[in-house]
Amino acid sequence: MRSRLAIATSTLVVLIIIILAIIGGAVWYFMSLQGGAQYGGVIKIGVTVSLKGKFQHEGDLALKGMQVAVKWINDHGGVNVGGKKYNVTLVYYDDESSPDRVPELYSKLIEEDKVDILLAPYSSTLTKAAAPVAEQFKKVIVSHGGASDSIFQQGYKYAVQALTPATKYLKSIVTLLKEQNDPDIKIALIYENTAFSSTVAKGAKAAIQEAGLNLVYEFAYEKGTQDFASVIEEAKAAGANVLLGGGHFQDGVALTQQAWQLGWKLKAIGILVAPTLPDFYQKLGDAANGVMAPAQWEYGVKYSPDVAKNLGVEWYGPTNDEYIEMFRDMFGGEPDYHAAEATAAVLFAVKAIEKAGSLDSDAIRAAAGQLDILTFFGRLKIDPQTGLQIAHEMVVIQWQNGEKKIIYPEAAAQASPIYPATNWWQR
Amino acid sequence: MDEKEIIKIHNVTKRFGGLVALDKVTFNIYKGEILGIIGPNGAGKTTLFNCITGVYRPDDGKIFFNGLDITGKPPHRITQLGIVKTHQIVKPFNEFTVLENAMIGALFGRRAGKISKDEAREIALKNLELVGLIEKKDELASGLTLHEKKFLELARALSAEPEVILLDEALAGLNPKEVEESLDIVRMINKELGKTIVMVEHVMHAVMNVANRIVVLHFGKLLAEGSPKEVAEMPEVITAYLGDKDLALKFVKR
Amino acid sequence: MTILTDLLINLTSGFLWGTVLGAVSVGLTLIWGVMKVVNLAHGESILLGAYVVSALYLFLNVDPLLAMFVALVSGLLLGFAIYWLGLHKIIGHVDVVTLRIEMSTLLEMFAISIILYNIYSFLTRSEPFGIGIWHLTPISYINLGYMSIQVNHLTAAALSLVATFIIYQFISKTPTGKAIRAVMQDSQAAALVGINPVRIKMLTTVISIGFTAFSGFLVVLYESAVVPSISYKYAPLAFTIVVLGGLGSIIGSYIAGIIIGVTYGVSKVIFSVLVSKNASDPLALTMAFIILVLTLLLKPEGLFGVKR
Amino acid sequence: MDIDEFFKRPTPLFILILLIVILIAKLLRLETTDYLITIMFFIGIAMALNIIMGFAGYVSFGHTVFLGISGYVFALLVYYNRDFANLMNMYSGIPIFFIALLAGGVSALVAFLVGIPVLKLKGAFFAIATIGLDFAALYIIKAFIPILNPEFFGAQIILPAYALAYKDNVFVAMYITFALIIIANYLIRRSRFGMGLLAISEDEDAAEALGVPTTKYKLISFALSAFFTGMLGAVFGLNSGGVDENLFNLAHTIDMIVMIVIGGIGTVMGPLVGSIIYFILYDTLLVTYPEFNLVILGFIVAVIVLFAPRGVVGILRGKQFMGKKLRDIIE
User: Fold this and answer.
1) CB-CB neighbors (< 8 A) of A5 in chain D
2) Is C126 in contact with A54 (Cβ distance < 8 A)?
3) Are residues A409 and A371 in the same domain?
């Protein structure tokens, strides 16, 4: 009795296994059929965007930026790869701003959707999770929102960057300070203790040292800090007369506001992120005047096909006005630098494919290393070895009488810098 | 009943803050007897049980079990050595079946680690049979009546195969018929299985009837010790506890 | 700047923050002490008040000093909803809260916290939202000589003291308050003298969550803006404070809050000397949890709690 | 146990089928490797927490602390030791499993040391203490990791390209870890140890009085649970290209507890079924109501706690099927 039962049950298990195997085999067969078919004439760009969670604001803009780029390319005859015309399409999933499922979604993009090239997700936390997948499947991944350079120092072969790396964020402002030839500059560096802001600060420190300027105070505050009174008092006590730092919008506003309220006399103020947004002036009023900020991209930048000609590099993509108009048409809102970065990344990726003349990742990566183009976003060229962006320059803006003006680099400038910031220094 | 002591309680003192719950209590428990511990509320009966089973560590004094010093050993060690307690407020494992409850006793009792699950099941079944819960073996313990839960406690304790069983008010809350049933089982366990039984009890007539010997605690002190009859006639016991001599004797007679 | 000044500054700001922490913990100590319900949605209850005040200020320009009463009312309503929808079925008719029932309420409050947290995240897109550095007077700083104190911090501290005093008076003087204390000490005995336990449990939940939402106003006043994840900072600290102060003790919580705040301030200075300035903040917060574990082990009834 | 009894019980059969299905899905590439890794991670953490929460009844709210600790240990090991990093892609990824064992061991050690005092606490106090532990560990990591190496800004460790494991190898390591955890769960549930733990979750004093060495058992189960959680954290950290403070995020605790509560505590099948339901729900809700999927999940948990405190499997166990009490066969 007992052995009969055993035989029956083991037969059952074997049967189940066989059935599962047959189903599995059939699915596999049909999938391989599908895989074998050619998607004639379409280049698939894969990406995850954060439509939920802490990066949803940036993710939303980035997605729109990518969609503008895709539309522009297709409207302008697609892209020429090895003599054939290809259209471009975007395949994306929501990563919920969490690194947990990023690897899964990227391998889905590669294995199931069979995309040809990847864009990285927003932020370095998510990029960190996506890059290994790209590396293993040998897909080029273009970073547009991960300004931290650490990824590019870890020897990833297929990761390339389409925006200025974080280490160079404050470099332009430091250069500007240096150009003032003021012997009495004492810098305080007060920044948010996150991967991005810390990297910026590290780059700033190197730049300050290189410029021979004087760093007298440094402090990294925790994410979400709103109260800077004690930090400001300490920096004041250290004799600092230039403030560099910040992190995100709220803390940038609070830092500036409290420096103003506590009567800190400053010759120059350079704050990350916050001053680039119109809200900054609305919240701070007169205190906003004189405040500088680095930006990846601004409305009034004057990159154009003519500039490209002068520089001797190829122009690609929409002009600045064309871009803003397209964005408004498609989405009704205004683009910001998050959108522009993403647009530029798509342009860079597509141009690299065109230059490679094939969809082979190694060829694309090699071509990307050789690429040197100018777009509405600025000049794009990567280090052939590491993939780090080396040509794109940050613009510097300064609030002057309630208006945001581009003051650096000179080629793109709308106004000259006000130094020292009179309202802050002579009060 | 032989006169060999199985548990020796020597000079045990236990204080809670300023309150002395047990004050230098010394007495013996003999192998094979049924010992009743009585005393008014707060006399220290439950505290004494808790000291024997290791729930509390005495502040002073020693407790020996079969000559082995068990003072301050953790409760599960003492259980595995052979002393098991049933709880005043029943504590069945509600989500376990009746059988599983009893099996826990066997698996972690005196032969802990040396007993297979099948053996444990056998023992559990035997003890459930004994207390009359065999028909309910597959029901969840949460579904039993209070009376049945008390029997389950007993079966669980028995399954640990102890030498000594401490019954903490096992009869409280039962109706007279159930008390009689319980007493029969207690006697049977004592006689047929040869277990030593110590009962703390409020149901006076019951304990006076079933016990071979009585220990009286009063405000943490040992007041008297002796056969039920002797104790009932001791003047100090009567004044302290029983109040009325006639009443006391009535208990013994019933 | 000398270490001494540094110490003085951090002591002061730690004290001020501590008063806010104290007020934040009062609601938690009530519901935990009286009903054995560990309100895992405490952080979300705080956020409710913070968001109500901020939304009224930003969208309707209501003065936060008026809006704080709306925060209180919103908390009372949330408490009412939580009791009848979430807790009543579990604890409404039990006299003795066993470990198992305690775990059920814990999980129930946990589920409620998930719901609220994600609603907030959705509504605010997880971005900081608040009343900003809200000006009570034209001068928003008071100079103490060795440091400047933000007026909003001082206001928060003052209001926390007043509010805690009021709820303390309420619990110790009014008949309802006395009934609540009776249930806290012995719910079975309280039932015997004719106190309706269901009513008291409901009231406790309502008052506790209401006060917590009110304290959310203090948090947003102190922090100027909040993000949902700030509940991960305040709620664990509130648990620590309640344990330290003793379950059910309002005064105990308030004082424990100040102790934690001051410890935070002082250890921040110490760690910035011993380790590094950047590491001092996280390490100072760690101290709170070391205090938590030590309290649980050495004096589980807390500083002002009743030993049971 | 003889073969007969084995097949009369659906639990081991279910485990076996689950393991086979994952393997088939991998070999036939029905799903991407990363998806399978993610699934195994989520089911795994629920099963790992189940050992302390489901069996012993101690709800460890700060359990993510062990994901974090082992994740960081693993990342530091392969970051600083090229030998480890090189080993990872040899022998089909088996070495990853062994390094994860090491990292899990650290978590187990921490759990053991912390458990000695903390497991004396009951119910809510234990839950709160573990939350405290999680935050304490998080803050300590945030303070010291950046000091350790200036490259680790914001306590984020990005693994160098040479320290990346091939997905297939990560799969192998994850698969072994996963199988280990489920089988351990099953064996524990069937063992005397498991009976003891369940008795503890029912009534700790009664269990101790009946001879269950409660202190020892709680410590072992806490350490085991931490060990497995840690192993998953290590392998998953590797899969995410490095670690950051997100690993300590209580959001993972939400995942674990929700899975266990949906499925039902005290069983092996509970969290298994629970995590599968959770995964399906999560994915479908994510598609249909991406903004509210967690809100809806919260409601589901709230309702389950109120009306079916023993979860889906708990309901099933109360039923009869073909004259047999399901309680007897669903473990």
Assistant:
1) 4, 7
2) yes
3) no
Rounded CA-CA distance D302/D300 in Å is 5
From A279's Cα to the closest Cα of chain D, the distance in A is 26
At A39 the pLDDT is 45
pLDDT tens digit string along B79-105? 988 899 888 888 888 888 888 888 888
CA distance B164 to chain D (A): 13
Give a yes or no: residue A15 inside a domain. no
Tens of pLDDT along chain C (308 residues) come to 577 888 888 888 899 999 999 999 999 999 988 888 889 899 999 999 999 998 998 888 888 888 999 999 999 999 999 999 988 888 887 777 777 788 888 889 989 998 999 899 888 877 777 776 555 444 466 777 777 777 888 889 999 999 999 999 999 888 888 888 888 877 777 777 777 888 888 999 999 999 999 999 999 888 877 888 888 889 989 999 999 998 888 999 999 999 999 999 999 888 888 887 777 888 888 888 888 888 887 888 888 876 54
Q: What are phi and psi of A250, to 5 degrees?
A: -60, -45
Q: Which of D121, D295, D299, D300 to mutate to test the interface with C (most CBs of C within 10 A)?
A: D295
**Same domain for B68 and B5:** yes
**D292 and C116 in contact (C-beta within 8 Å)?**
no
ipTM of the complex: 0.79
Residues of chain D with pLDDT under 70: 1-8, 290, 320-324, 328-329
Which chain A residues have a beta carbon less than 8 Å from that of C127? 57, 249
Residue ranges per domain, chain D?
A: 1-31, 38-248, 251-331
The CA-atom distances, in angstroms, between B92 and each of B135, B142, B151, D207 are 17, 8, 10, 10
- The confidence score (pLDDT) of residue D8 equals 66
Residue C63's φ and ψ, nearest 5 degrees, are -60, 130
Which helix or strand (DSSP H or E) is residue A146 part of?
A: none
pLDDT at residue B245, as a whole number: 61
A54:C150 CB<8 A: no
All residues of chain C having their beta carbon less than 8 Å from the beta carbon of residue D294 are 114, 117-118
Sequence-distant (6+) residues with CB within 8 A of A165 are A147, A148, A149, A152, A199, A203, A388, A389
What pLDDT sits at residue A34?
Answer: 45
Domain membership flag for residue C139 = no
Residues B76 and B36 in one domain: yes
In a domain, A97, yes or no: yes
The partner residue sitting opposite D199, judged by closest CB among B93, B109, B110, is B93
Confidence grade of residue A38 (pLDDT, cut at 50, 70, 90):
very low
The distance of C225 to chain A (nearest Cα, Å) reads 7
Tell me the average confidence (pLDDT) per consecutive run of 10 residues in chain B, 254 residues long.
Answer: 77 84 88 86 83 89 89 89 86 86 87 83 88 84 85 89 88 83 87 88 78 86 84 76 61 54
* Rounded-to-integer distance, Cα A199 and Cα A401, Å: 31
| Contact of D60 with D130, CB cutoff 8 Å | yes
Q: Are A66 and A90 in contact (CB under 8 A)?
A: yes
Which is it for strands D324-325 and D320-321: parallel, antiparallel or unpaired? antiparallel
| Chain C to chain D Cβ contacts (< 8 Å) | 132
- Domain of residue C154, CATH code: 1.10.3470
Average pLDDT over residues A227-240: 84
Q: Classify B35 in phi/psi space as left (phi over 0), alpha (psi -120 to 50) or beta.
A: beta
- Please say which residue of B162, B188, B212 terminates a domain: B162
Do B100 and B158 fall within a single domain? yes
Which of D156, D169, D235, D295 would best serve as a mutation to test chain A binding (most A beta carbons within 10 A)? D156
Full domain range(s) for residue B152: 88-162
Residues in chain D: 331
Sheet holding B60-65, edge to edge: B19-30, B5-16, B60-65, B68-69
